[in-house]
Protein 1
Amino acid sequence: MKQTEAGTPGNQREAAKSESAAVQNRKIHPVVIYPFKQPSDYFDLKALYELIARLDAEKDKYARPITVMDRKTHYAMERTKPFLDFRKNTVARHSDILDAWCVDTCQMWYSGLGMAFEKGGPEDVYWLIPGDFNYGTAVGQEVLGRLHDLPEIIVELQQDLCIGEIATDHNNSKQLIDTYGTFALLYNWFPAEAQEIRQFTERPRSEFLAVRRGFLGELLRQRWYAYEQTVVMLLQAVFSRKRISRFFVGNISDVPEGRESLASAMQQVERTERVLKTLWRERHESKAGWTEQYRVLETQSEQVLRTALIILQNLLG
Amino acid sequence: MTSKNMNSFGPLPRPIAKKTLRGVNFICNAPQAQAVSLVGDFNGWNPAAHPMRQMPDRAWFLKVDLHHGHHRYAFLVDGTLTLDPRAQGITRNDNGERVSLVPVS
């Protein structure tokens, strides 16, 4: 009888031994999302890949880093020598490049985290590092010095998800999008979960995060959205009562190439609404009478969306 | 300055750091409180282990030596578990209460 065998002291010892081996062999998997738009110089990326080089050298702690590069980025730059040199001499030297055709950054996450997941062991931790930030500045260097805390918090404090939070001023487009868009929409579609999320973070769309293997496995098996994946991750974490932490990684601003225009800000709020709407339907469509409640929420959501767009237009337009 | 165990930023091998202790300052701004103590993983959440001292500016202060790593903690302000607004992170303790997080490197 299998159950009896599993319960014997010998088998328990074996199970404990293999768990302990998994802990001993635990690896942190850095996954770098290479900037979609190539910056005008490599100052910030060089600073980032100095960190990646050190991670790559620390083989007992870190798995070989992965860099996800959109093929569109590659083909846009394929005749540019500085890009080709940087790709070959720096990116490929310190990480495995995953070339992928992606509809959006979240698909780059999916591809990169998925590839890392397939290479990982049962106790491993996955660490997402966005490439399009100003790491070359003094503040950026400080941030680079703190990012490693995210996976370490997962390991040391047995957490499932750790969100890295960056400080911005009140009129920063990210702050405006989250205050008037993301949270307003979350409070409409998932009010209880939104309150729980806000107890931890003001940046539910942060791209700095680390996640434990068990939870990443659950996320990868579920429907993956093309955008605003951190919001979905946080919601899934709250739905399934996962352990969430937030860690302040510093003050940082996006590099100019990645900064939001009004059109981009509006698009992000619209995408958030679309994702939340779809997620709500998926969670409720098996319940009787869900369409009625859905229509009410949808009407409210349209009002929230309209208000958010007016505010963004007034402040960013 | 950069060496194997010292670096301006980024993760490093820490065989030495793991064993060393570092003094960490905790400040709790609760001028009206009668008693404030520091509780955390490092003292088994024991309210009697680390009482804080009220300073001339009426803020409560304590310096504690902590090992390398990430520590969960909170202030117990007149018996009420209180988050540190200056903390670098937030998480939950084993009782599911929201608590603060301090990294020690």
Protein 2
Amino acid sequence: MPDPVAQTYFGVPGLLLIWLAAAGAFLLFGLRVWRYVDVLRRARPEPRWDRPGKRLGLVFAQVLGQKRLFGEPLIGAAHFVIFWSFLCYAATFGWNLVRGLFPVLPIPYADEVGWVRLLLQVFAVTGLAALAVSAARRYLFPPPRLEQSRDAGLILVLITLVLGTSLAGTLTDSPPVYAALWWAHMLTVLGFTAYLPYSKHLHLLASPLGVFTASLRGDGLPPPSEGAARREEFTWRQLFNGLACAECGRCDRACPGVASGAALSPKMLMHHLKEAVRGGGGPILGDRVKPAEVWGCTTCFSCMDRCPVFNEHVPVLIEMRRKLVTAGEVEPRLQEAMTRLTRYGNSFGSSPRARPKWTQELAFKIKDARKEAVDYLWITGDYAAFDPRVTPVTRGFSKLLNQAGVDFGILYEAEQNSGNDIRRTGEEGLFEVLRDKNVAAIGKAGHKRLVTTDPHAYHALKNEYQWTNGNGRVEHYTEVLDELIGSGKLPVLHKREMRVTYHDPCYLGRYNGIYDAPRRVLRALGASLVEMPRNRDRSYCCGAGGGRIWMEDSAEIKERPAENRVREAATLAGVTTLVVSCPKDLVMFQDALKTTGLEGKLEVKDIAQLVEQATG
Amino acid sequence: MPGNIWVLAEHWRGKISEITFEALALGRDVADQLGSKVEAVLLGHGAKDLASELGAAARVISADHPALAEVVPEVYAEALAQLARRERPAVVLTPLSNVTLGVGTLLAAKLGASAINFCKDVRVVDGKIEAHAVLYGGKIETKVAAATELVVLGIMPGARLPDAGRSAEPPAVVDEATVDLPAAPPIRFKEFIEPEAGEVDVTQQDVLVAVGRGIGSQDNIALAEELAEALGGVVCGSRPVIDQGWMSLSRQVGKSGASVKPRLYIAAGISGAPEHVEGIRGATTIVAVNTDPQAPIFAVAHYGIVGDAQDVLPALTEAVRSRRGKAA
Amino acid sequence: MNLLVLLKMVPDVVEELDIASGGAGLDMDVARMALSESDDHALEQALLLKERMGGTVAVLAVDAAEVDDALFTALAKGADRALKVDAGGVSQAGTRALADLLARVIADGHNLLPVDLILTGTQAIDDLDGLVAPLVAHQLGLPYLGIVTEVTPEPAGKVASVVKEYSGGVRGRFEVDLPAVLGIQSAERPPRYVPVAKVRAAMKTQRIETVEAPTLADGGMALAEVKSMSKPEEAGRAEMIEGTPESASARLCGILADRGLV
């Protein structure tokens, strides 16, 4: 085919046209992207370049492999195809552009090479098919919270044009048609390039960088700060979330706040960041994001777990919470919890001396780890020690340990709230005080292993505390039960055939990957486990985390997360027991059974209670 | 001859306060023990007629002055001090209420006398006054002796039954006294601010379901409303609930709120702090629901259930409804 | 406006209170001290007035266990000065002696005068022998009003409109010539939260001024003598109804019905 660049159109040489078009497109693109880079440059630093090997691995699996997208299989497959088509087309476009700008180069156009032409055709056809699926999904059966924007529609049209013009170009014999299609293709791509920074399609460029600079710690915590409200108070990586967001809505679909009708929307949060980076306006917190949205998060981590571009919603919210806390703008009940924690080391407002009272009804005395060394140092957490609905379970577990001959002890009055949840409310200083007191107490207590009842305490002790004695092993009590049963120290005497379902706590499952130990325990007891639709990493939060257990429900709540979850459990045929392994889950679901009227149909039991029944 | 027992006769908006009668009853008991008399001191402006209600006192000393129209602690204390210097009583009982708070302290300071607050009872031991007071919100009881000849005692509500201090007869003696008070005091009463009208008057209710902090959240107040409806009453609240904005001020029961006299008072999630208990002493039957078996409310209630209000209130509503259903 | 807030530490009633071996006082080894609740409101009211009208807030307390915490918290919340009177065991000698001491310190200067408003809590749970606000007012010859819930000084700062609580939800408005001493029942807004980090920062960057206690003319004689202390007996306890919420409610309902209440 004759070289389209060598021809003249309405008196203008093709070479000039391509140069003008390319220069114009790249100039527009460059200027706009430079604006964004400038904004990011002025933001707070946040180094994300450590462990480059691991980061590259992430890029391979998640960008090239598109792994997370397959969480929603249909669009995952379609997007995989579109992505690889895009890669192919980006490569060939670059090739063609270079050749078009510099006709002197002795290289053919991409489609003039036999196997490349075939590749282009294959990707065009599969790409167009995938686009059809995407469009059908978007317009005929869209999932909830998918952002329907003109931008999204325009992108579908543009990609169709890109693929279509290329495919048609490979099929035509007519030079004028070929030239027309060639120009259509090149100008569409160049136009797309100029449009890219104004579109959510910027995620093409931003998301691979986002994945490379993803948080490897997976704890949802921002770096140390006094909080952020204005654009420049956030870190570059936090603002970058907005640019990488493709507005797919997976975060909103996962969020218990969104489902319950709260003001929070992780997707809108990303949108506000994007708008703020794009330009001007007042502070992000205040003008764009309201405090009610900020406080609505339970830090369940579902959003971050599902986001295909590895955006980080939770740290942004915590930054804003820190700002509100610094300003003293905290709702009364939460303020009361903070004051109680500061003064008494527990959120119940009880005297620290009352912490060990739950042990009084026991027939044996639990060792005081402050006075004598123990094998297992047991940290119960506040709810397990103070809430009368939970203390029977706590006593039950201590009886199991006793029965199994485990050498264990507690810190008695010296134990403080682990601080995990108050840290997530933005009260970093209070967290440090609690942590330091706990570390001092743990440091003086001779022990080999640490076991916790509460997954929140587990998470903090395992990941956010450091102490030097013991061997650093932190276990959740379900892991201990698993080991005791498995090793025969706690023999199962009465296997009960019961149909149960199990709720994976957020801080045990998503945050720390412990899914199997509790399931092994249930199997060992003879129970048949019926999984809820949302199980393991898809488990649906009870609504207590992130300090929300200390906050008022907002008036707009249609259905509390715990109510939603017990209703899900109630749909399982023949299941009458919802098994939990977190004290807060126990009280949240028990309350939810009452408010949903499911009390006769379903009961909530802690896994330790089932073990007690089976081994006693 | 031991000095007399004086009772500052508190009155407000044209009525003698209940606590005055309680103090008169207490004063008479002390006077009997001491071998002297109880006298009431009535300070005010245009309130002389109220003296006729103070028949429990052997004598009423009445002083009228424009500066005494509404209680300004310094002015009242000054008037009392002048009278006390003339008459030299042994004991002055002042009510610990919002109306006259501070008068007793200032009086004691002016006279260089002992002051003892939070008195629930007063005895005479070896011819000397021994006050029985409660401290720390009622957690500790203490016996206190005065170190001076004159002692000013701040009397808590509920020290005696008010009826014990009422008398059908007017006082035997009413003396008018003059006091010398400043014409232009630095504190001037302007006006009363009434609570929002149009709402319910809890003081007129026969059945009240009261909620405190233990109700947990504003939403749960609906549980109390359902029970109130089933019983034919209304809801009210202790101070923390009103402060949170969960209920209007007109529904507050307690020291700064209303004093109520229902036949049935159900206190749900209320700890029983003295400031609240003060408002319910007139209730015939008090039922308390609280998760803490040590809650002070159980000491004043007639019946108690240890449990979560969120569980008990609906259960009780159900029980009441089915009983009413049977009866109907 | 120059505002002065008087703070007092009182035994924390969340803890179990034990009687000391002499039988005439609390066992102070186990008792923890907390800021008197209405003093916290007085501080909040002072800070609100400073925010509205400008000026300075000074905070004054007598040395006691955990008072540093309260003073640094006040500084972190926005107070400009914090002073602590080092007076041996006067804080145990009763409210009368404490108030006399505070009044003396204020009158002695320490740049606390001239002052427009002295705010303190209306009453504390340990005010056995008097209240701080009227006693300080008396010593300094200033007007006093207690159970205050609103304070609105006029711009000229010579007079304030003050609201106090009566009962039944009724309140009263007074005009008070300044300077004056007010006993605050509750601030116009609940006491603000200040994060732990700010308090710790205040501990590092700000200081509490220590004031030597002036010797009192009458040696701080206590005018009332505590003869004994005891925990109340559980006289007249409610008849407790046991069981599940359902069964207990049913029984209670029966009892109430017998009494003609249902």
